[in-house]
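Tutorial, part two.
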Amino acid sequence: MISSVEINYLGQAYGFDPQFAIDISTVLKEDSVNCYYAQKVTFETYVFGDFVGSVAQGGPVNYQRVTLTPHGNGTHTECYGHISADADATIYNCLKKHLFFAQLVTLPAYPEGPDSIVRLEDLKRQLNGVIPEAIIIRTLPNEETKLKKQYSGTNPPYLDAEIGKFLAKHQVKHLLVDLPSVDREEDNGELKCHHAFWQYPEKTRKDCTITELVYVNSSVPDGFYLLNLQVISLWSDASPSKPIIYRLKEL
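Running the prediction step on this input gives:
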């Protein structure tokens, strides 16, 4: 059993214990967190001839069709194909590395008229002088209701587009948030933060991703982590995903 691992980032050595993995994804099931008017995740048992794909119903194995919408059902990771007509802009093509030096930060969302917005100045204050490869944003209040919340039509909090621009400028390649989107639920299709982060279409950052609807329990402290960003090998702009983080300690 591997009990400790050492990595080096920008000349600083860090260690972590691979036995203490923290899953920050949400579970895909019928009552999962949902947004953008997506239908709930469904599980359909295959029945054909004498075969029943359910052990509970007397079948030899469980055999089901799962129907889901990555952008609307649970934790998902998307590439620039979300806002591009490029047929090759798929998560399979864009995400070829899966381990990243990440920083978890907890930020408030401030009311501005009918909206609640996460501000760039708060993010800047949380950064520890080291620009990571990935930023994980946990928003306040951080309640477990996020795991089952039905966000459609609620105008949930979102990020100031300046955050996307700042992260692109500093070469942060992966942005993870516990919100349905980094942009306003209804913004006339502008998606300002998406465009700013990917620098699309002028200088498109094709190897960068946005992950939405993560959930980071309040017991997990802010700080540096090793991020393992797991997705399905899917020929689509987005995939259900399972981000795993490991707490890093300076050596």
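The two ends are 21 Å apart (CA to CA). In part three we will examine how such features are distributed along the chain.
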